[in-house]
Amino acid sequence: MPASPSIQAEVAREVSGKSNEDSAAKIPLLLLSVFGAAWFVASAFLFFLSAMKMHGPNLGAAFPFLSYGRLQPAAMNAFLYGFLSQAGAALGIWILARTGKTKVALPAVLAFGGVLWNGTVLVGTFGILAGYNTGLPWLEMPAGAQAMLFVASIVISVCGLLTIASRTERTLYPAAWFIIGALLTLPWMLGTASWTLLGQTVRGAVQLSVNGWFINSMTWLWFGFLGLGALFYIIPKTSKTGLHSRSSASFAFWTLAILAGWGGVHSGAPLPRWIITISESVNLIFLVPIALVVHNLWNSTDGEAVSEKESLSLRYARFALTALISYALLSVSFYLRSRNLTLQLTLFSPGITFMLLFGFVGFSILAGYNLMLPALLGRTFSLGGIAVSLVALFMTSIPLILGGLKQASIWGDESKTSADVVKGLVPYMGMSTLGFLTLLVLSVLVLLRIVRELKTVVLEDCGCATWASDSSESKEKQ
Amino acid sequence: MSELSNKSAVENDSEPKVGLTPAPLWAVTLLGILVYALIVRSINSGGDFDPNVYGRFETPKEVQDGHPAVVLPDWFVPGRKVYGTYCVGCHQGNGAGAPGQFPPLAKSDWVNVEGPNRMVRIVLNGLQGPLKVNAVDYNNAMLAWRDQLTDQDIANVISYVRNEWGNKGSAATAAEVKAIRDATKDKGEQWTEGQLLQIPVK
Question: Which residue has the higher pLDDT, B163 or A460?
């Protein structure tokens, strides 16, 4: 995937302006980034396997770890905590250092936090595959792994927060608000949910309420804020016009921060009516900050220095914004009571969730990788793959969304049987399986590109590249 | 990896700038309207914030109408208490008695009769000797509770027994018990089956 001349020029400017924060943070941020990309491959592979199980339930039937009930949560946890969280944290801390014009604080501790995080996700994912699933969505890893994840989140968050505390640029850039918000709330959310749900201090229907709060809070306050932090940095930077409106960003930040934990409960959930009513209303109110974010960032892309066509990061970022607004509109229709009662147990929900997580957060991270990794490695390159990314996004989420609508319509027909529902979903599941295969291809391409650039830098640093080129030249002379 | 000083880092002007355009008025207005709508909607269809209002119900009244409360007769709770204190040891919690030792009360042909006349007498003075219940023979003795239980206690426990475990019978009143207590005040011994069968059930 060669970089276009414009991208190379842009990255060259980035590399030449490389400041000390890149140098100090190189190892821990690279560690988090590379392992994040590796988890992207692992999660895509697990997603693909779990999608295959929808077509061939007997595939690997002799091996319990290949059952759908284990593969799907393992894939989701690897995607959420292995890829999105880790890559997002690396990108977020890098942005904090850049906008604060400072070094990353405690890089050795951050590297330790990264190793701890990776080890925990590895143990947790194997735990799920081995059958130690807690049964709580997004908290499926065994309780011990969740506890370690909480500790690792504190280590990483503290490093990020100390980084911004040591900034030389006193005025916080809006991207930093979102990242600080994400780092402050991650340990709180993980700790509270693990303690109450896995420590079994709440029982019965309250578990559902706490789990709903955890998923919605993690969606917006962690993944959402990391994605928004990345976009609020990448778009104004690559478009060269700067951010359109600070007060608009502030308004959106506080609205999201205050309301994030209030939504996300399904209309059919066995919870008191007032919780569901408020949740439905908050999901509608969410449209306002999201519209503000899109309006603000869209107005920030009117720069003259780098056009949309020329900047890969900007293109990724624009697609991320599109995915965000698409999710917002679809989720409002999903959470309306009349629709939700028929859609809540269909493929519609995983479809829009994947659109948000991969289309918005994942694309934001890939946009950030195209800026951060060249700067960290001191080389001009781009990850490319935007066409594959778009195909992966459309082929995973859209068939699930359409399949969910179809599923609901068949279920609503009293003359149809469960077998009719399954038959009706086959083409949608087939498309989605191909989508996960594309996602796997994309993740492998991204990882290989990063590893190749990393290998080149390592060889250059140790002088091996010179030795290798010398020896090849001497061979040619002979 | 060259280390740059903080000074040079500060001078690095490659970071994006921030515009000071105010937040659009439409967003503030829309947010205000939606928050107001949220409050109104929560008040109108939030189940009055009652933790017992679930799912399709909108108000506590709807829940109440949909789930009419079971009204227990006055004698039920005190009668169950007396039974649990004095009777349960022999007749068991489920009223099944003990095979060969203590006759059952559940679906008993001595309990499911038109009136409580005989039952009141048994509780007041006790019972001894052979007894046939539901075509099964027993031969044991039951204590007299005349001095331990009040008229109201006896009325409650008999009413309870006559309407529990599938039994169906009229309730006893304290006045009925008092009348029988007065009429049998001179009976110094326990009843026998033969004597009881001479007494009308009602």
Answer: B163
Residues B97 and B51 both lie in one domain: no
Domain termination residue (choose one: B69, B100, B123)? B69
Q: Residue A166: closest CA among chain B residues belongs to which residue?
A: B6
Across A342-361, b (16+ Cβ under 10 Å) vs e yields bbbebbbbbbbbbbbbbbbb
Task: Determine, for residues A285 and B12 on separate chains, whether the beta-carbon distance falls below 8 Å.
Answer: no
Compute the distance between CA of residue B196 and CA of residue B198 in angstroms, rounded to an integer.
5
Residue B137 host element (H or E): strand B136-142
Q: Which of B69, B102, B128 lies at the terminal end of a domain, its last residue?
A: B69
Which residue from B minimizes the CA distance to A231?
B16
Q: b or e along B135-168 (b: 16 or more beta carbons within 10 Å of the residue's beta carbon)?
A: eeebeeebebbeeebebbbbbbbbbbbbbbeebe
Same domain, B110 and B189: yes
Q: Please indicate, yes or no, if residue B202 is contained in any of the structural domains.
A: no
User: Which chain A residues contact residue B48 at CB under 8 A?
Assistant: 274
User: Is B20 part of any domain?
Assistant: no
Chain B contact for A302 (CB, 8 A cutoff): no
Whether residue B168 lies inside any domain: the answer is yes
Place of tokens 């028929």: A342
Show the domain range for B180: 76-197
Nearest residue to A198 (alpha-carbon basis) of A149, A238, A153, A233: A149
Same domain, B57 and B145: no
> Cα separation of B43 and A277, whole Å?
10
Selecting from A23, A250, A285 the residue whose C-beta is nearest the C-beta of B34 gives A285
- Check whether residue B106 and residue B177 sit in a common domain: yes
Domain count, chain B: 2
Tell me, yes or no, whether B86 and B122 share the same domain: yes
Residue B168: which CATH number?
Answer: 1.10.760.10
B6 found inside a domain = no
pLDDT at A15: 47
Q: Is B151 in the same domain as B179? A: yes
- Shared domain for B101 and B141, answered yes or no, is yes
The residue ranking higher by pLDDT, B118 or A308, is B118
pLDDT tens, per residue, chain A with 478 residues: 444 444 444 444 444 444 444 566 788 999 999 999 999 999 999 999 999 998 888 888 889 899 999 999 999 999 999 999 999 999 999 999 999 988 899 999 999 999 999 999 999 999 999 999 998 999 999 999 999 999 999 999 999 999 999 998 888 899 999 999 999 999 999 999 999 998 877 888 888 889 989 999 999 999 999 999 999 999 888 877 788 899 999 999 999 999 888 887 877 778 888 888 888 888 888 889 999 999 998 888 765 545 444 578 888 998 999 999 999 888 877 777 667 677 878 899 899 999 999 999 999 999 999 989 988 888 888 887 889 999 999 999 999 999 999 988 888 888 888 888 888 899 999 999 999 999 999 999 999 999 999 998 888 877 665 554 555 555 555 4
Token pair in block for residue A229 = 């932090």
Q: Which residues of B touch A462 (CB under 8 A)?
A: none
List Cα–Cα distances, A44 to A64, A223, A244, in angstroms. 20, 18, 36
Q: Nearest by CB to A285, which of B1, B15, B38?
A: B38
Q: Is A23 on the interface with B (CB under 8 A)?
A: yes
Torsion of CA A470, A471, A475, A477, to 10 degrees: 20
B21, B37, B57 member nearest A245 (Cβ) = B21
B33 and B95 assigned to the same domain: no
